[in-house]
Specification:
It contains eleven helices and 20 strands. By secondary structure, it is of the alpha/beta class. A 14-stranded parallel sheet has the order 1-2-3-5-7-9-11-13-15-16-17-18-19-20. Strand 1, helix 5 and strand 2 form a beta-alpha-beta unit. Helix 5 packs parallel to helix 6 and helix 8 crosses helix 9. The radius of gyration is 27 Å and the shape is elongated.
Length: 421
């Protein structure tokens, strides 16, 4: 850590003789407050901080135990000093602040950044009210990474043609119209990574992103349709309003390697398969890892949907399931019987992990099924539901013994029961 004490212990002539590139590296390793303080070291250092291309302004800069007015006052002072003193391009800018209501200073800052060739911009300004971003956000035409949280976008300039260089877009806790969001995505031709978390919009958003490789969708409202995403490799769907349209859209998954679904999105995908009741008529050979969260084994449609997908992804290497199973209804058990998988083998499955295990018959049947149908399985880890007191003795004593009696297709599989972790 480059502290004030350390500076004082180094002769000034040594500090002044450091090459410019070394000084720049030192300054970029320091928090902004400390970087500005280096201006007292010598005449050569006085304005060096003004050329830092990477700036991070986090909550530590304006922590206040007094009131919000103090936060706004500090923010205004720092931004004014930055805008009037900084010289040169700003390639990366990160701002994190709480309790900042609509402030014209923030609008001026965004305009300043748009004029200084910002390429990586992160704004986290969450508060009681969402700050309305100015139109100058759309003039940051060199953006490659854009992350916005706790604000709103209500209008886009009519002449906005998209971000030609944008690679990563992350929106969290935003209020934005579906039309603007849809246009923002489709008019960013190089978009590789898209993350949408807890945003507010209405209607169905069509995702047209030919180069999109990774997509996370975790929303409370709004819906999406993966209309054109032929190069998806990493997909997380955590929502009940995902729209597929027909089973033909599964063809967009041909390059998918990693898939995360919750119970709602799992059912929607299975429904999208239409009349297909056992598995898809084509192979999705690229999918290597499938994670299913909040899977209610007591619900027949959830279990049948999970079975449908597991059968369709026979080249899986890693399968992770977090179950929710709290009653004794046996209606869904038949979906997990070995006879239902008579024509299926998981010839590539090497790792299986089951979380929130309670020892139910459905869970045991799932374990039995995968052990019997996975000839190259190497590792099976079972994690009990934390603090599940009612079945604790059974889980501790009976389940490990029972697991050792189950038939195994793989001679090298290690079954690990992780009780108490």
């Amino acid at each position: 850590m480059f502290s004030k004490h350390a500076c004082q212990s180094v002769p000034l002539d040594v500090l002044s003789s450091l090459p410019d590139n070394v000084i720049d590296e030192i300054l970029m390793c320091l928090p902004l407050r400390e970087a500005v303080r280096t201006s007292i070291l010598s005449t050569k250092w006085r304005y060096k901080w003004c050329r830092i291309p990477d700036l991070k302004l986090d909550y530590k800069l304006w922590q206040s135990k007094v009131d919000k007015r103090s936060v706004l006052k500090k923010f205004t002072k720092i931004i004014y000093h930055l805008v009037t003193s900084h010289d040169g391009p700003i390639s990366k800018f990160i701002l994190s602040i709480r309790g900042l209501e609509d402030s014209p200073v923030l609008d001026k800052l965004i305009y300043f950044l748009s004029r200084n060739s910002v390429q990586h911009l992160e704004l986290d300004i969450s508060g009681y009210y969402k700050h309305k971003l100015p139109s100058s956000i759309f003039t940051c035409l060199r953006l490659m990474h854009l992350s916005l949280s706790g604000c709103s976008i209500q209008l886009a300039p009519r002449n906005f043609k998209g971000f030609d260089t944008l690679i990563c877009l992350e929106l969290r806790n935003m209020t934005i119209s579906s039309k603007i969001l849809e246009n923002l995505i489709s008019n960013s031709p190089l978009l590789d990574t898209l993350m949408l978390h807890q945003n507010v919009y209405f209607g169905i958003i069509e995702i047209n992103a030919p180069k999109l490789r990774a997509f996370e969708f975790n929303e409370m409202e709004g819906s999406i349709c993966l209309k054109s995403t032929p190069n998806l490799q990493d997909l997380t769907l955590w929502h009940k309003n995902y729209h597929v349209g027909s089973r033909n859209h599964f063809k967009s998954f041909y390059h998918l390697e990693y898939l995360v679904l919750n119970g709602h999105s799992l059912k929607v995908l299975a429904v999208a398969a239409g009349e297909v009741t056992t598995r898809l008529p084509f192979d999705l050979n690229s999918l290597k890892q499938l994670c299913l969260d909040e899977i209610y084994l007591r619900e027949l449609d959830v279990v049948s949907s999970a079975v449908f997908l597991i059968k369709s992804f026979q080249h899986l290497q890693i399968l992770e399931i977090q179950v929710e199973d709290y009653d004794n209804d046996m209606s869904a058990l038949q979906c997990l019987e070995l006879e239902a998988f008579s024509d299926v083998k998981f010839n590539h499955l090497r790792k299986f992990e089951l979380s929130c295990f309670t020892g139910s018959d459905r869970e045991m049947q799932l374990i039995k099924l995968l052990l019997a149908k996975s000839p190259v399985l190497e590792n099976m880890r079972i994690h009990p539901l934390p603090d599940y007191d009612n079945a604790s003795e059974k889980l501790k004593n009976e389940i490990p013994v029972l697991l050792n009696t189950l038939q195994r297709a793989s001679p090298q599989v290690e079954v690990v029961y992780v009780f108490g972790s």
